[in-house]
Amino acid sequence: MLLAERFSSIQRLLRTVAIILRWLQRRRHFRQAVIGAREMDDALEVLIRLDQQTHFMVEIKQLEAGSDKNHILRVGGRIENAELGHDQRFPLILPKSTPLVKLLIKQAQETTLHGGAQLMLHSLRRKFWIPHASQAVKSFVHKCVVCRLHRGLMFKQQMAPLPGQRVKPARPFVSSGVDYCGPFTLRIGTKRSRTLVKTYLAIFICMLLKPSI
Ligand SMILES: [Zn+2]
Fold first, then answer.
1. 170-192 burial string, b = 16+ CB within 10 Å, else e?
2. pLDDT surpassing 70 at residue 183
3. What pLDDT score does 213 carry?
4. Cα of 162 from ligand 1 centre, angstroms
5. CA 127 – ligand 1 centroid, Å
6. Which helix (H) or strand (E) holds 93?
7. Which of 11, 76, 122, 211 sits at 20 to 30 Å (Cα–Cα) from 86?
8. pLDDT tens string 116-175
9. Alpha helices, DSSP H only, in 27-80?
10. CA of 73 to the centre of ligand 1 (A)
11. How far is CA 125 from CA 75, 87, 133, in A?
12. How far is the CA of 97 from the centre of ligand 1 (A)?
């Protein structure tokens, strides 16, 4: 559809179509600037119907009974008795890779905050059924710069080889070192036990620093 190609956002497209529909219904300019949710839904229905009529004309003629009261093709499945919304039980069928579908995929990406192909697919399938959607979504994610940045490999710290003293067998304390030291506050405490602990700690550090003692 040529109109959908001119927009980079589904919301802007829907708003424009909603205004056109308003004008068609009333044939005059209107003062109310706010476009309601119902009008946005109607605009989406019109766009979907146009897409379906372009790509599924044969199926629509063959399956007149399969379309809903708005003459829109929906998928029937085995979950029609599930406690889910009508759109989720009977998703709208859309042809793959039309400008409208691309805008819907883009919207799914924005609503899922670049959450990846699986999350986008889940978000889309709550309302739409797009054949080969997985392929279309993956290719969209692949081209997205933000997703590519998120996918980038983290820098890994280069590890030096271990020093010889740590990997060669030797008697205890032949080689010694301290990985981490201090600051140790050696205050004289009021309790005897506390003083003792600190004294032991100080001795232990001395042993590490001066193994010859
Ligand atoms: Zn992305």
1. eeeeeeeeeeeeeeeeeeeeeee
2. no
3. 43
4. 41
5. 21
6. strand 92-93
7. 11
8. 999 999 999 999 999 999 999 999 999 999 998 888 888 888 899 998 888 888 888 888
9. 37-55, 57-62
10. 30
11. 11, 9, 9
12. 17
